[in-house]
Amino acid sequence: MSTTVVTGANRGIGLELARQLSARGGAVVGTARRPTEAEALRALGVRVEPLDVADDASVAAFAKRLAGDPVDALINNAGIGESGPRIAALPIAGAERALQVNALGALRVTQALLPNLRHGARRLVVGLSSGLSSLERNREGGWAAYRVSKAALNMIFRTLAAELAAEGFTCVVIDPGWVRTDMGGRGAPTPPEASVAAMLKTLDRLTPADSGRFLSARGKDAAW
After folding, report:
1. Residue 25 phi, psi dihedral angles, 5° rounding
2. Which end of the chain has fewer CB atoms surrounding its CB within 10 Å, N or C?
3. What beta strand segments (E) does 84-177 contain?
């Protein structure tokens, strides 16, 4: 049975990832900063672990609890984001927090679980990015802290892909689209069920030859 770790699995896209992966019969480790409040995640019957991706000690403790367990896939989903003020008035503390969670959080967890991934069958590492990370497509500004943090995430994954290629890893970032979640808002056109189904179909067919790509939910190359 394959094992997938999903960070930030207590709500939104992360919860739906845990739901669909579990329904397929795989073992799922879903993380939440406050597991006692993650009723919907616990109701799935998956393994629920506490994890704050922005906290070194929390990540180290999580890795210790998983020590020796093979992990086939790691989906770095945990993230924060809001439109925020225009960049001229952007609080630096807010930008730092976004970087700590969205970019460095994924790096922390990936570093910590590399031993587990090396013992897994797929060696698949995924980062949930965003179309708002695209340098090419940014013509209107806004969402500055979120954009910067997701662009940093993309670069982390390109570097992971290059450095882990010799070990047969597949490291990709994927844009789930504009999804109807707490972060995406009620006006978003895509329900989480559809986004996750499309992403999982895309992830299922990836090979190490795809490592380093930035993908749409349906597997097309997204604009860097």
Report:
1. 100, 0
2. N
3. 124-128, 170-175
Catalytic residue flag (residue 146): yes
Radius of gyration of the chain (CA): 16
d(CA 35, CA 53): 14
Q: Give SS3 for 128.
A: strand
Domains of the chain (ranges, CATH numbers): 3-216 (3.40.50.720)
CA distance 214 to 198: 15
Asked if residue 180 has pLDDT above 90, the reply is: no
pTM of structure: 0.97
| Catalytic annotation, pick one of 62, 143, 146, 169 | 146
Q: From CA 132, how far away is CA 177, in angstroms rounded?
A: 10
pLDDT, tens digit (0-9, with 9 covering 90-100), for 33-60: 999 999 999 999 999 999 999 999 999 9
Phi, psi of 35 (to 5 degrees): -60, -30
Q: What is the pLDDT of residues 98-152, one digit of tens each?
A: 999 999 999 999 999 999 999 999 999 999 999 999 999 999 999 999 999 999 9
Helix axes 104-118, 144-164, angle to 10 degrees: 30
